[in-house]
Amino acid sequence: MPQVTCHTVKKLQQTTIDADHIAIELNRQSADHVDKAAVIEAIQTYSKFGMNYLKAYISCHPESSFSLAYEPAQSMLAETMQTRAFIELRHRYDVDSRHVFAVYDDGLLCALIPNWHPDEGNSELEIDLNLDAEEFSDFKNDMYAIAGLAAMTGGAVYSNNYVKVEQWLKFHDYYVPSNEAETLNLFKFLSMAPIESPPLGNYWELLSPPGPQPFSLTDANKANIREVTLDLVNGPNRLLQTLSRGLLHSKSADYIRNNADALLQKMVSSEAARQWSQEYLDALGWYGAHEGESVDVVHLDQLLLTALLLDQTTLIDTHLAEKHIAGYNLYSPDNVEKSLQRVRIELEYHLVATHQYPDTLAPLIAHLLLAGNAPEFLVKDAPSSLLLGTEQWVDFRQGVCLAELNAAGSSRVMTFPQLQILGQIQPVTPSQESIHGLIASEIIMDWALLHGAIDQKDLGAPEKTAFATALKAFRRNADLLAEAAQTLASPMPTRREAALKMLQHAAPAPDFLQKEVLYLKKGRGEDFFNEPLAMSMLDLHMSNDLGTQEWDVRKPQISVYQRFPKLLSNLASPHGVFDIEFKRAHKQHENAVATTLKLAMAALPQHDRNNFQRGKINVFTIRPSVVKQDKRPNLPVHPILAMLHPDFSILPRHPDPVENQRDKDAATGRYGVLLGVEVDNQFYCYELFTLYGECRKNQELAKLIIDNNLLNMPSRLAFTGNLTTYTAPTTLYELPLNVESYTHGVQPESGKHSKGVIERLGSIAAPSVTEHYASSYQSFYSPHIQTIADFVVKHRPFVTGQELHADAWGQTKWEEAIQKSDDRLATLVNIIVPFKACIADLSSDDADRKLDATSSCSLEVVGSLFMVVGAAAKLASIAAKSASAAAKAANLARAASALVISAVNPLDGVPELITGGFKLLGKGAWRLSKAGQELLDSGTDQLRRLINNPTRELIEATRHMDMSRGTWKAMGQSGETSALWAVRNVDDWYALNLRTGKPWGPRLTALQRSKMALSRVWLKLMPDSFAFSYVRKSLPIAQQKIDTALAQLLTQSDHVEIRSLLKSIFGDDSTVAATLVSDVLTKMRKDMSHVSIKNIHFEKIPNEGALAEMYIDRFAKWKAGNYQSDAFNSKFMTIYTAEMSDYFQTTKFDRGRIADGIVHEMSHGSQHTADLMYAGLRTAGEVDVNPLMNLAAHPWNSGIPQAELDHFMKIKASLPGVVSRHPALLNADSYAVAVSLLNQRSTNPPLFIKNLLAMELMRAGAGTGLFKGSVIVDLSTLA
Which branch of life, at top level (predicted)? Predict the structure, then answer.
């Protein structure tokens, strides 16, 4: 018989089936949230009792994504448990059927004890399998396949319905927490309330560039809308004025601003407005413009608002240029540290002054423009203390971006605390990590613009250059803070550490070096209780006594000096090494403290920062009174005594108060100083708390200093007198501060008063060159502020180098004994790090407290943007915590850099990117490449899926729609097609708007309908080993089906049932037809007997929906070579595992249906059959044979694809007469169905009769015309 085609494939039927309906997908998402609730409960319950929640077991909803993915694994495990090998294995290890069995991703098989309960999940019995035994070879393959499925589903497959929380997390790509902080972060994310868009989203959906939904207006659409507007209002820029007439009368700007969403909704929903909306809709010809199409009112309102935006021609044409909106630069350096409300109002002023909008309309126009481009300016309860370019703004901006990506317009209906929490939650999946990195890229660019690190002109340069510059500036801050905080959090090097390092080289015995087993050989070294003093080698080396050889172990068989023969020759004093290391660390410590002081000063308002940058600085200290009463008698003193004791005087004595410099120095507060600034003939005073890293203005002190002429008092640095000489006391004042904040480190508070003494420490001259920096970031790098910080650190540190040195020096027991004293040197054990004031605020979950935390906690780095809520343990100081934040920020900034560089299309210049209703990298930033866009889309899709739970209303609204999954690309558009859900209305298809649950947009003339593969529901592909297993087991079933079918044809071809079957499927029940079918099956049986799994190639990538593919040329060569294997021709069949595994699951894991597919492909090879028509695939084992019956009865009107029909007509003359009259005898799927039914007649006669009756009834009722309606037959072998 002539060959019809040399490359045929078995394709999935391109019809919408129940499993493809969107209601099923929405139900699945809803079931996922039921699973999530179970995980949340497990975390709460187990954590409450200090138990490991990751090992807790949950039962998943049967319709959830996890259960759908888990089903093949459980089915295969259940089947394997019934095999002889498994039963023998159980008996070998005395494990009965009451056990719960688990297969892990490493192939390990475990049995859980009888009567196992989830709370006993750790009680697992490991079974060692002898998989190398020949008798277990198939079992080994099955275990390999199940292990592959276990890897796909999070690491394990259980024979019951329980799964571990850890497994569920891995399946959904969550990072598995490793500590309490990560657990808290995950819990916050899982517990997050759904994020929903307002009805009209962000107003800009129809003006977004073409994306996954065809709701974006083309240039022609926009022109049509503008023409309708001209007809309605007789001129441009009048639509808003017309619609708002009477609505804004006597309304204040504040009222309009605060109620903009409600006013816009009211404006577009009036009866007259809806009529205008319909006119726009009619002009577009979108859904709702034709008879019988009922459009959702939300779509009408959105269309009218779009027309309103398009009417603002000058704004639309300029609003996206170089980070501008309507020509106004939101992120200009002039706006740094302005409140969001102020910038919004300035935009309104700009619209009035530049574009001549009325005062009443400007707030509405600004609202519309900001909603789609900079929604952070529209959050209603954002506090006035939230300033552009600050840390709090960065944190907040992160939350807004995430909210808008998840649901366009949602940030306008969320509260400020909700957005803050969202911004503070760290990524919980790799996709979210990517999303956060992309968001960071935009925020870094805007941060850099605000702080002047890059300029507007830089945006015209290649985007990588601009971003690299911005990132460098950002990382400069982050890295500096991280370095300072790490230094402050690190202990100083000690003499003990230096001695240990040296000793380890000289005597490599780490367990022995610190054992106190050495005693003084001569004399009696004693401890406090007069017991012989035992010392360690380390302690003796610290004090340089180890080298004296006067110490050794008691009654030594081997002396330590013999045990370590190179000890003495390699031993040097640790003191020199310690001094070098200490000096280096102390310098780093001073630099770090100076950094904290610079941060404190840079955090002040701009006017105060300018004072520091330009003025002369007078530094004052605070102390309590140290006055003493001189009660010595008024008697003359002997001259010799007066010479020996200068404190005694021969002058007359009187009981007046006195003090000396030594006492004053000891009492002077070390935890803060006063900074008096002389600038522009004005005097300002600031309290700088070195303990808390805080600087605050205090003009009451300024007045006190001026009124009492304290600027002219002598400075401490100029003092050269005797420290112990008594003098008249310094004046004691009632000070507007708390003296104990300076002397004892008490938390500073406003409004406090106490008695104390102010003394001038020294002064710093005003800079010779005037400095002016607009932002905190720039002020931080002010040379004069650096000089101030260095001065304070040098002359009034909160801990001196001597104190640190004494603490790091330490003292051994032998040194204490030598001193005959139990008193150690006074040490400063608690080296308190600046920023303490911020610990409670930044650690708090209270959004207001966190917002009020001083900016000195961490400068405007994106520290909190990517702050890991906790590391291995919470650091003791805010400096160390900020270090962790800044280090993480720097790392992710670097990752963001690599991500942007790889994701950005270098050929695109700097246009906008608009996605998900939000310009993620918009306002003149970058456009992502295909890879970058896919990364963004997948991350955004996962974010929405993990957070949002579809409402029952949406599910019900879509349940009864005629829907299909498909791909679409706008006419004339280049690029990739987009996947979407489409709704049929009569003969037309429209896209489904998932926000409203209603059809919307233009007719989808280019829609390509396609089946949605189940495996893509959870974005994972089942392993090839799974397909290998069920295909291998299906080969003998295919052989058996052919054998059974052939036997019936050879022995009972005249039976009425067989004749009826041949008539229905092939269109001819004659003896000639029966003989032809028998001959075909005979060839197939012979060929099939030589087919093994070695002849099949497994390919994961689907081929346009194909299940399998037969290479006819390779098959022919393999057959001509007497079925001998070779490297190429023996692989004549390809199984597309992704599609085939999906199909296998829809059949409820019926290998008989896989065998039918193999029969189909084998008919291509053995008989050169064609793919003229396919049966329609349904759920489980059901197929719709209507197409095959029409091919059999009415071949020329049955809808054979034109290419196949043309080829058939070309070879028709060379075909046997019965085939030329009945093309079904050349159709592969007809043979596959016929073989399956003939086999069923033998194995399941009742089901066969039911199927045969369905076909006969259709034939009887159709007369001479085409068969209408489905003819469902059940080919399942599971029934």
Answer: Bacteria
pLDDT value at residue 708: 96
For residue 156, CA distances in Å to 59, 142, 162, 443 come to 14, 14, 11, 41
In angstroms, rounded to a whole number, what is the distance separating the alpha carbons of residues 650 and 665? 28
Q: What is the pLDDT of residue 1137?
A: 86
What predicted TM-score, i.e. pTM, was given to this entire model? 0.74
Q: Which two tokens stand for residue 1184?
A: 């719709």
> CA–CA separation, 1115 vs 1102, rounded Å?
21
C-alpha 1103/C-alpha 1108 separation (Å) is 9
CA gyration radius for the chain?
42
303-312, 617-626, 819-828, 932-941: lowest mean pLDDT where? Answer: 819-828
Mean pLDDT of the chain: 80
pLDDT at 1020: 62
868 sits in which H/E element: none
Instruction: Note the pLDDT tens digit of each residue in 382-407.
Output: 999 899 988 788 889 989 998 998 88
Contact predicate 589/491, CB 8 Å? no
Pairing of strands 682-689, 694-697: antiparallel
Smallest CA-to-CA distance from 1026 within 132, 108, 83, 73 is with 73
Residue 769 is classified by DSSP as S
733 burial class (0-12, 13-18, 19+ CB within 10 angstroms)? middle
Which DSSP category does 548 fall into? G
Residues 6+ apart with CB under 8 A from 291: none
pLDDT band at 842 (very low <50, low <70, confident <90, very high): very low
What is the rounded CA–CA span in Å between residue 1051 and residue 1061?
Answer: 15
Measured between alpha carbons, how far is residue 1117 from residues 845, 1085, 1089 in Å?
A: 73, 18, 17
Q: Could you give the 3-state DSSP secondary structure of residue 702?
A: helix
Q: Beta-carbon neighbour count of residue 632 at 10 Å?
A: 12
- Residue 1080: pLDDT band with limits 50, 70, 90: very high
CA neighbours closer than 13 Å in the CB half-sphere of residue 288 = 25
> What is the strand order of the sheet 1008-1009 is part of?
998-1000, 988-993, 978-985, 963-968, 1008-1009
Q: What's phi and psi for 980, nearest 5 deg?
A: -155, 170
- Report the greatest alpha carbon distance in the chain: 152
Q: β-strands 1133-1136, 1096-1099: how paired?
A: parallel
- CA angle 398–403–408, rounded 5-degree value: 130
pLDDT > 90: percent of the chain: 38
Q: Kindly give the interhelix angle for 1151-1167 and 1071-1088, rounded to the nearest 10 degrees.
A: 100
Strand partners, 757: 623
Using a CB cutoff of 8 Å and minimum separation of 24, what contacts does 350-359 make?
350/326, 351/326, 354/326, 354/327, 354/328, 355/314, 355/315, 355/326, 358/241, 359/253
Q: Phi, psi at residue 1183, to the nearest 5°?
A: -135, 155
Question: Would you state the pLDDT for residue 211?
Answer: 58
Closest to 110 measured CA to CA, from 121, 118, 119: 121
Which helix (H) or strand (E) segment is 1202 a member of?
helix 1202-1211
Q: Which of 325-339, 529-543, 997-1011, 1088-1102 has the lowest mean pLDDT?
A: 997-1011
Q: How far apart are CA 850 and CA 1231, in angstroms?
A: 73
What is d(CA 451, CA 470) in angstroms, rounded to the nearest whole number? 10
Let me know: does 495 contact 501? Beta carbons within 8 Å. no
Strand partners, 675: 619, 686
Which of 1096, 1123, 1124 has its CA nearest to residue 1109? Answer: 1096
Question: Model confidence over 29-71: pLDDT tens digits?
Answer: 888 889 999 999 999 998 888 889 998 889 999 989 899 889 9
